Amino acid sequence: MKRILIASGLTILLPALAFAQSAADLKNAANTPDKVLTYGMSYSQQRFSTLTQINRGTVKRLVPAWAYSLDDSNKEESQALVMDGVIYITAHDKTAAINVETGREIWKTMISYPPETAMTVCCGIENRGGALYNGKFFRTILDGRVQALDIKTGKEIWNVRSSTTAEGYAMTGAPLVVNGVVIVGVAGAEFSSRGYIEGYDAETGNRLWRLYTVPRPGERGAETWPNQAANAAGGSTWTTGSYDPDLDLVYWGTGNPSPHNALDRKGDNLYTDSILAIRPKTGQMVWHYQTSPNDPFDYDNVQSVILAEINSGGSQRKVLMQAARNGFLYVLDRTNGELLAANKYAKATWAERVDMATGRPVWSEETKKILDHVEKIQNWPYIGGATNWYPPSYSPLTGLMYVNSANIGVEYEPLPLEELRKLNLAAGGRSGGNTIKTTNIFPDPEPRGYLKAINPTTGEAKWQTGFKSPNWAGTLVTAGGLVFTGTRTGELIAVDADTGEILWRFQTSSGIVGQPVTWQQNGTQYVTVTSGDRNNDNARRQDPNIANVPMGGSLWTFKLLPQ
Description:
Layout: E1 2-5, E2 11-14, H1 23-27, E3 48-49, E4 62-69, E5 81-83, E6 86-91, E7 94-99, E8 105-110, H2 117-120, E9 131-133, E10 136-141, E11 145-150, E12 156-161, E13 176-178, E14 181-185, E15 196-201, E16 207-212, E17 242-244, E18 249-253, E19 274-278, E20 285-290, E21 306-312, E22 315-323, E23 328-333, E24 339-344, E25 351-354, E26 361-363, H3 365-372, E27 377-379, E28 393-395, E29 400-406, E30 408-414, H4 417-420, E31 436-443, E32 449-454, E33 461-467, E34 476-478, E35 482-486, E36 491-496, E37 502-507, E38 517-521, E39 524-531, H5 537-542, E40 554-560
Parallel strand pairs: 3-34
Antiparallel strand pairs: 1-2, 4-40, 5-6, 6-7, 7-8, 9-10, 10-11, 11-12, 13-14, 14-15, 15-16, 17-18, 18-19, 19-20, 21-22, 22-23, 23-24, 25-26, 27-30, 28-29, 29-32, 30-31, 32-33, 34-35, 35-36, 36-37, 38-39, 39-40
């Protein structure tokens, strides 16, 4: 323990902070229930915990242990990291280290960026978390920087610029650290930026490599764009990838092509809306799989890529699984990208099915119309997708994925080609919804959203629990038979992993759009989640159920009340 003297003269004890986390520690993160060392709780991003103290029988005794104010009124989407009695959490403007048992702040490091940044970035003011490695905490900063902090003091070690908002870029995702390489992605397809993934040396901050996700003339994939990709843009990489140490491959999803309107970019538009397998030391692309070629619907394919071993075709396969924004759930052999399954898990009318021989979607007649000319159609899922960035979880005990999904469609009409070509679609110029003439959303009859337990090889739900508003929070599944997630009206809930029954709920101070995690400290299991949603006018128009939910960011931690 460490003694510190605070301003009032009171001496308090804080847990000793660890000095380092090795590459081996990160690879073993799934087997350390007393820690949460990586985004996704392990390199596989299963968000599964072996802890059982909080279970179906005891969850009714779950109560708040403490809450910490993040002093912010923006969206709090960050996932906490936990190590040796300390929680590390980010907001867009700060990083904080907090004592896990008391909720007291150990240190806080503020971030500043030009005030106009908030008005010029896509697509929101948030941060989704950080990464731990070798005594450092790594994070991205909204205006296009990557930062390393000392985990003992919060003092900045290095701060490097990756990109600028003038070029249309923003950075909100949590880094992935693999063998000393800090890997990050960018947002910005809605501002005509050219997506990329890049790696930095964890010790020095020197950039080691950059892999662009759309080509230029003469590069592989250029033939899938007009003019040999002279003006290719899009392919944002704004969430965090997964890693297989045995294969030494990182798996990262890429976003939609730019502009949203597809009339002036005929072709598959590689490598947008894809899953990429890359070498973490060099950034070399080993293989790719594209989910939505020539995407007109903003079906960003950046959803979490979950790694697991499952039975497929009568044998155990090393697979990756993704519940994609376009409404299909994909299972691929992660050694080579072979498609093993692709099935609808939500209402999806844009494609009839995926052709298993070619791996390509079979477009519906309605989609063919708007790829060829201007026409108004109705389409599912809506622009926000059947799911979005918020990560699902997977239990190796049940073999099910636990996914928050939306049940919303869109009235869609592209802007005519002659009007589209008048727009400023250069880097930094908006190229998202302004290229579509009509994007009115409409819900099916309630529920507007579901939490689903899905068989990844069939897309079928063992159960689904409906909600008036789609949940925009991540899910966490435990060996205690529980699924934790949050609602936009602010409830943290615990659901029976086998039946979908809501067993426990707690009202936090704002909407939950964060990512719950669990760990154990001194024999006590805890659950932590951020609360805080920015209910702007557009959000309230789309979803009246959240109109009266207050703003204000905070971090909540729960434990069992003694019997």
